# Entry
Amino acid sequence: MAQKKYKALVLDETEGVLTASVREVSNGFDPGRGDVFIRILYSSVNYKDGLAVTGKGKIVRADYPFVPGIDLVGEVLESHSTKYVPGDLVIGTGWQIGEVHWGGYSQYQTVRAEWLVPLPDGMSAEESMVVGTAGFTAALAIVALEKNDVRPGDGDIVVTGATGGVGSMSVAMLHRLGYRVVASTGKTEDDYLKSIGADEIIHRSVLADGPYRPLDSAKWVGAIDSVGGTTLATLLTQIKLHGAVAACGLAASHRLDTNVYPFILRGVNLLGIDSNYCPYDRRVEAWNRVASLLDSDLLGEMNRMITLHDIPNVAEEITSGKVKGRVVVNIQGS
# Structure
């Protein structure tokens, strides 16, 4: 395929100063980067993207100039893989897309076939990016809790960072599955959280102020935590007998100061959720699970649509905790 000129959000670094700008780049199918060439339709803005674009976190581990964006969905234009043919609609997440390998904030991109999954039946390309890495991670967390026998009716399940991407998706899917969901947030978003399925809302300080005892009163049968730090430490002391916490983020801190009592006296399970290197079969299972649980109306309620030009501002918002729900980037409309 001939070289093409197209738009991308490009990060540059000069003397330690990071800048982000939308500009034309010239590129085509590049076998050195992968075996599938995609016309990207949509991407999204995740917390990790916000850190990459603002430079507030060391997310990009590649030379500049660099195109970020850890999520993408698009149409296959050229394929040197037996897995996909031109015309296929595919989703790309994880595998260091947007971190080491050029990502989704580009109108065209070359990626590896093993990084991709088919767009699930009944889900539109736009809807898949409302879900994105956030919803995919939430689905992996829910599957992990289910495999550890955390069931609806066993007790309350708490979701931290509930207005964020992973949190919102977790609340919505857990509600659809019949769990009683307690949403932990620092925002005053009662109407939004209740509209997507939260049964009760608690302020994040209830958990973030720290565990007062090595083993606190048992309150939750399970939890999905994207906050980390003291919040995760507190959760572990409050999980009921043989309950579990699915840990999938570190919005507050990467550190965990805990003790062994929850594990040896209550049999609590701490489940690590990895959405980056998750195997193909598990990816497909999670994406199909999302497609079966979340309908178009709900996904539309969570969605805010922007263009490539809006990403730097939204990156500042999301890293400052000012974004609720999901932000989708219309790549071809940029």
